[in-house]
Fold:
Amino acid sequence: MRGAMASGSAVVLARALEALDVGGAADKINLIPQDFFAELCEQIIQHLNHKIPGVDTAELCQRIQTSGIEINVGDLAKIANVVSFLFSTAARNSLSTEELVTTLGNAVTALPKHAVQVIRHVWNEHGKSISVSEDARNMATLGQFVDIKWKLGVAMSSDTCRSLKYPYVTVMLKVADPSGQITDKSFEMTIPQFKNFFRQFKEMAAVLETV
Amino acid sequence: MAAVRDGEFAALQSLLKAPSKDAVRQLCQECFSSPPAGLGPLAQRACPGLAAGPEEALQLVSALHNLTRHVVYRGLTRAEDILSIFPENFHQNLKNLLTKIILENISAWRNEAQASQISLPRLVDMDWRVDIKTSSDSISRMAVPTCLLQLKIQEDVALCGNSPVVSALTVELSKETLDTMLEGLGRIRDQLSAVANK
Structure:
């Protein structure tokens, strides 16, 4: 009975893989060196284990590009989605390493060999620990705020005003969307806008205290 | 912003045919606010009585556009500085009128220039709400306070022209992440005070 159930789950995974266009991802995964791919998989596992809010694809992509590989953030995000789906489906169906690897091998367009090796290793190490249950803190239906980076600047001159001396605040918010991808959003504020921004957050915190 | 050329001052003389001082005022404002690409249509629309033909109309609005933008670029705020831009033989009354109009508008024009200069996307609005999550399909009872924040961000004005693109970013914050945000913002505030005191 257990054997039949297990292979049933593997079939679920196989069908889902087809639907997810693994074929498209397979070509792109080929581009990524093994150690970067391993890092991506580790981050995905950590995200599924609720240890980190998401996978910082933008940051990882930049490092991959610096090493000379031509890949864009969109492609890396697609690959992250496929692998995340792989791992979470395997966890939900309690697949063993062998079942997972066999299913990958049998998929219509197989993943490159080095990728399968990484997946096998990562699943072996961490597969058992992925908990699929939700707890209160981890229910994300919206983007989750992760971090804020900021810069205070003064615009000195522009094509419209030779002498500006215009202070402004630039803020970059890191947000983890529900699928686990971390994206950056940058914007500028004038100083009065910033003061209002700060005040609103203090009000929010005050309300949170009372609730 | 190059200085105004002599030929352009000649074109400004067409303003002498304007029906009223207010008409000149109105035209100055429109010429300042118009981007270079909008000057053609503006010339056709605004100058039927003032210019002999379409070419003269375009020369007039271009001259007025360049003059007003030049003053804002140089940051001139005193009457004598603005008067000294005009050539010696320029019509006295017209020179005084234009200087007066420029002085009236210079502060608003400077703000307009700053607001439309290149920049990262700008925050235009911010709304928030505090919720309590009470239950879900997997947890029947809980009381988790959460902040929902919606930021409206307008993409670079220079790229969007007259139809600004505003995107909404909706984000959830927990008590911990809200504290992270407050800490970051507090440091900005400290830095602002330090700079202000220099």
Observations:
- Chain B touches chain A through 55 residues (CB under 8 Å).
- The two ends of chain B are 31 Å apart (CA to CA).
- The first strand of chain B starts at residue 122 and ends at 133.
- The beta strands of chain B are 122-133, 144-154, 166-173.
